[in-house]
């Protein structure tokens, strides 16, 4: 397959098979750099670096929120959560993703094109809903197996915070669609998986990006190492679906909506459980919030 504008060979995903990570100075006429995938090793190393750097920046942003809290004499819980989302998501994940692509030489149009950002079609909305059902079934099956095996799982810090302060759960529900889904998907599917896809076939790119995404959640979990690793393994399941959906649709909005829907439903169940039933009845599925 060739690019009609340049005659260069491209892969099935529309990515040149002779790509090379050349930095920000070489830009083509389409608003993006003359890029090649380079060696698979470089692609994997870049994906790992970006995948880990996001949470590192997010942790550093937590220090900034703490400093603001100290300087202001104490922020309200809502203000603290909002600032944490802004710095820990928009800056740490979204900012890193856009900054990396800008460094490579993509202008605004090129970034949108690279990520595949467009209004989803009715078919793609159907894919979001159908994929969410698949994720729900898979997680219920996996969580049942984990319970039968008696394996300990870790708790998610966001879920614990929400359980202790149910009035902020609606904020988390809205943030799932407006902040968490878009920001995490732009980094881990749009950039991490996208960078891998330049050098690797679809399957390993999806698996590796899902593994990176699931693993970085170790920092968002509480409990022993074994429990954290078990939960990370479970989080690998929705991560695979996010990646597969992105590969199939080539539209970043689709996995962002799917991610947001998944989180929002779980937070909604959490809210109903805590306010109507009681925190002791929290379903085991709530341990698997990929935020």
From TrEMBL:
**Transmembrane domains' residue ranges:** 42-68, 74-103, 124-148, 168-188, 200-219, 225-245, 252-274
Q: Where is the composition biased (Low complexity)?
A: 1-14
- Boundaries of every CAAX prenyl protease 2/Lysostaphin resistance protein A-like domain copy: 170-265
| UniProt GO molecular function | endopeptidase activity
InterPro entries annotated for this entry?
CAAX_protease, Rce1/LyrA-like_dom
Q: Which UniProt keywords apply?
A: Membrane, Transmembrane, Transmembrane helix
**Tell me, what is an example of a GO biological process annotation in this record?**
CAAX-box protein maturation
**Annotated region Disordered: where?**
1-36
Q: Where is the composition biased (Acidic residues)?
A: 15-28
Q: Which domain of life is it from?
A: Archaea
List the signal peptide residues.
none
PANTHER family per record: CAAX AMINO TERMINAL PROTEASE FAMILY PROTEIN, SLR1288 PROTEIN
What is the designated name of this protein? Answer: CAAX prenyl protease 2/Lysostaphin resistance protein A-like domain-containing protein
The species this protein was found in: Halorubrum xinjiangense
């Amino acid at each position: 397959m060739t690019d009609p504008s340049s005659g260069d060979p491209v892969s099935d995903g529309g990515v040149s098979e002779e790509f090379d990570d050349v930095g920000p100075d070489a830009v083509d006429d389409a608003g993006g750099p003359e890029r090649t995938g380079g060696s698979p090793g470089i692609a994997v190393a870049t994906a790992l670096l970006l995948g880990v750097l996001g949470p590192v920046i997010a942790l550093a942003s937590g220090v900034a929120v703490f400093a603001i809290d100290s300087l202001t004499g104490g922020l309200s819980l809502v203000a603290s959560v909002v600032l944490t989302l802004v710095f820990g998501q928009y800056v740490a994940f979204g900012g890193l993703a856009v900054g990396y692509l800008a460094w490579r030489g993509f202008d605004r149009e090129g970034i949108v094109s690279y990520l595949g950002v467009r209004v989803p079609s009715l078919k793609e909305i159907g894919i979001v809903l159908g994929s969410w059902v698949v994720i729900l079934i898979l997680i219920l099956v996996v969580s049942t197996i984990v319970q039968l095996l008696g394996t300990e799982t870790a708790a998610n810090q966001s879920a614990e915070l929400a359980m202790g302060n149910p009035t902020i759960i609606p904020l988390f529900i809205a943030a799932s669609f407006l902040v968490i889904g878009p920001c995490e998907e732009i980094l881990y599917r749009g950039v991490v998986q996208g960078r891998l896809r330049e050098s690797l076939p679809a399957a390993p790119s999806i698996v590796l990006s899902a593994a990176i995404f699931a693993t970085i959640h170790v920092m968002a979990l509480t409990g022993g190492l074994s429990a954290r690793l078990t939960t990370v393994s479970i989080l690998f399941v929705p991560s695979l679906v996010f990646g597969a959906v992105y590969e199939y649709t080539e539209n970043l909005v689709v996995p962002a909506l799917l991610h947001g829907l998944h989180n929002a439903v779980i937070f909604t169940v959490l809210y109903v459980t805590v306010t109507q039933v009681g925190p002791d009845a929290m379903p085991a599925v709530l341990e698997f919030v990929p935020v």
